[in-house]
Every structure is written in structure tokens, then in C-alpha cells.
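Model it.
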Amino acid sequence: MISVPNYIEKLAPYVPGKPIEETQREYQLKKVIKLASNENPLGPSPRAIRAIQSVHTELHRYPDSSAFSLKTALAKKEQVQSGQIILGNGSNEVIDQIIRTYCVPGDAIATYQYSFIAYRICAQIHGVHTLEAGVDAQLSMSVDELVDLVRKNERVKVVFVAQPNNPTGQYLKKLEFEKLLKDLSLIRGGSVLIVIDHAYAEYVSAPDFVNPQSYLSTYPQLMILKTFSKVYGLAGLRVGYGVASADIIVQMEKVRQPFNINSLGMLAAEQALEDFEFVQKSVKMNALGMKFWEEKLTELEISFWKSQGNFLLAQFSKELGVLGFDVYQKCLQQGLILRPVHNYGLPHALRITIGTPEENEWAVEKFAAVCKDLRK
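Modeled.
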């Protein structure tokens, strides 16, 4: 039998949200609503759709591996040079590129407990350990604890911090964030790469949230990740990117696979960047949907954590005394797909993506019936 490294043998692969079609087949349902994968319920940017329709006859050609046009558009948006941008097949691939470039087996990454699980998975794929700083009962993150963790472990090469975090929706406030950058930059001569995952940037409304972009020139070891999978509605095309100093990007480009972004993804992403009306509509709808869910969960006496993304995390240990997976399974039977997060270490919680007003109304009705039944 062909052997694999021990860290691959023990790897638990990423589990995506359950597909609509699978749920329909499994439960013999006609109507299924998916509020599980933090997708934009409005669909893709209309400008992106029109752009894709205009080039379908050119799909026999390889894409521009340098992504000149998209990088130029992104450089303008982010106010950086195009050489400061790297593209990935979703920001997940950029996470993998980072670890492949800057870590060797036996090294470590550091992040917070309950952070985006892709950090840990990508690290383990490359034989790299994951160290986690704990959070408190409110899931708030401690800067000092993370900094101490990095300082005491010389094999830590990369720190990943999601702003805001998926699945908890939490974030570091301005002063906390600035302290994190300052303290980490002083460790081992500034050799630790600081990666800020900003996938949900457009949805943030908190006044004490700071845009990490403004710190790039001050901290050369800083990198920011973004994606077209959320507010731009292009999750199916898989386009993400990282912004950092040219010195960081030039090394990562060495490990990037050629043609890792397809032609349709590059073109759609470039057009979506200019679809300001669609982005504003998406953000506004999300804010209203978030308020709706918060009010309904309060009425149902289900506790939740406030979120700065397009999702929120509800928990059932106190109110229902059941696991989140139990609620998930019951909701599936009603045609409602939510996201269990037991693989994050949160067995009593479920993540709920904000949908359209119609989806939210229908979902709350099903969700409330399930909660009522479980309370009996």
C-alpha cells in the first residue's frame, strides 16, 4: 500500500455547506433554502454576468496567467502597485500559497481559537502545526495572548487573524488591532508574516473597526486577503487575492500555479469591482436581514453573537440544551440548510447566513418550528 505522511493520514478535510440538490434528493423536498455558506443571496453582479456572456466563444484560449487587466483594476481599487497583488483560486488558495512559501514541515502558524478552519487545514497539508490563542466566553480575542503565543514559539512563521472572523463574527477594535500589529512586528526582528483575512470587508459597519489597508506602508510584514466570493457574488468562479509588499508577493509568485484563475473568473471579477450599485444594494439588504434575524432570535429566546459579516452565530446550549447539529438536522428535514460548526469546536452553535427578505421570512418560520419542537 502506498503510504502518505502522518499529517496527511490524520487530516480532516474541509466540509462545505450541504448542497441544495443533495438536500432535495435526500428528503424528497421541492423547496430548499440554503443559508449555510455565506454566499450573496442576490446572486452574481449583473455586470459580471454580462461580461461572461460576451466572451463564451473564447474559452478555447488559455487565460492571461499574469492577470494584467484584473491586477491593474485591483491596484487602482486598493491604491497599491500591481506587483503588490497575488491572485488565488479563492482566497483559500492564497492561504495555501502563503504557507507553501514561508513555512517548512515542523514550522507553525498562529491564530485564534474558532478562527476560519482553512488556516489549520492548509497548515496541516504542509506538515505545519497550528497554535491557537484562546477567546473568552463572549468569543472576544485577546491581543496579548496571541502575541505571547508567537513570542514563545520560535517556529511560528505566520499569524492569521480574520477581521471579522468566520464563523464567530468577532473582530479586533481599532486600538486592539494597532497594538497587535505593533507588538507582532517587534518579534524576531519583524520576521513573522501577519495575515489579515478581510473577506467580509464590505459588510462591516462598526465605527471602531479599522481598515487594515492603511497600515500596509507602516508594516512591511503585513498582508491582507480579500475575495470576490462574498459581496460580489462570485463564489462559483473562485477568485481571491492578497495585497502585501512587493517583496512578499515576488516570493509567493514562485509557488503560484500558472493559470490558477480562469478567464471567466478574471473578467467577471474585474467587472464586479465597478458594480458599485450592486455592492451597495447587497450591503443594505444584509444590514436589514441581520437586524431581522437578531430580532427574531431574541423573540425566540435563542442567544447569538453580534456579527460584522453576512452571517451570525446562534447557540443552543442554555435555551434548548441540544447540539447545534441536532437543530441542523431538524432544519434540513424542513428544507432549511444552516451550517453546523462542531468541527470548529462549537458543538452547541449554528451559523446562519443572511438571505433575501423572502428567504429570511421563510427560514425563520421553519427555524422557529424546529426550536419549538425541541423545547417540548
